[in-house]
Design goal:
This protein has two helices and nine strands, in the order αβββββββββα. It is 24% helix and 30% strand. Helix 1 runs antiparallel to helix 2. It has 153 residues and is an alpha+beta fold. It has a five-stranded antiparallel beta sheet with strand order 4-5-3-7-8, with no helix packed on it. A four-stranded mixed beta sheet has the order 6-2-1-9, with no helix packed on it. The relative contact order is 0.23.
Length: 153
C-alpha cells in the first residue's frame, strides 16, 4: 500500500502544478493559451511576457484579470500585468498557436519595482492523453503489485 501511495503521488505531481515561491507559467502550443500561478505571499509587482519574434496576438485576446492592471501597449512583442493577484490565472489564448517555447520568456518582480528583474521558466501543458497514460500505467502497476502480494500472478 505504501508503494501505491508513492506512485499515486508521483503521477498526480506530474499532472498538477508544483508549488514554488515564484510564479510559474504554462503554455499550450496547440491553442496559444497562457496560464500562470502566483503562489508568492502577495500580488506580484509586475510580470511581463515576451515573444522575441512578435508571436503574440492583438489586445483583444489578452484577458483582464481582476485586481491586476494590464499593459498591452507593446503587443505583439510583450504584455505586462501589474499587481498580479495570488492564485492561478488565465491570460487567454494570446500566443499564436504553434509558436515554439524557445521564442517565449517572462520576467517578474515579486514585491517592488526597485528589486532586480527575475527570469521565469515556462512549462508546457501536457496533452490530456499524457496524463491519462500516466494514470493508467500507475493503476496497472498498483494492480500488478496487489496480485503479486496475493499470489495470483
Amino acid at each position: 500500500m505504501k508503494n501505491s501511495l508513492i506512485i499515486a503521488v508521483l503521477v498526480a505531481g506530474a499532472c498538477a502544478s508544483s508549488a514554488s515561491a515564484v510564479p510559474t507559467v504554462w503554455y499550450n502550443p496547440a491553442n496559444g493559451s497562457i496560464h500562470f500561478n502566483n503562489d508568492h505571499a502577495g500580488p506580484l509587482a509586475h510580470i511581463s511576457f515576451i515573444s522575441e519574434s512578435g508571436s503574440l496576438r492583438d489586445a483583444s485576446w489578452l484577458l483582464s484579470i481582476p485586481g491586476a492592471v494590464k499593459d498591452n501597449s507593446e503587443l505583439p512583442f510583450a504584455f505586462t500585468y501589474l499587481g498580479l493577484p495570488v492564485g492561478v490565472t488565465y491570460a487567454g489564448n494570446i500566443v499564436q498557436p504553434g509558436t515554439p517555447i524557445s521564442d517565449l520568456h517572462y520576467q517578474y518582480r515579486l514585491d517592488s519595482f526597485l528589486e532586480p528583474i527575475s527570469q521565469g521558466v515556462w512549462f508546457l501543458i501536457p496533452e490530456p492523453t499524457s496524463c491519462t497514460l500516466g494514470v493508467m500505467s500507475a493503476l496497472a502497476l498498483v494492480g500488478t503489485a496487489r496480485c503479486v502480494r496475493r499470489g495470483v500472478v
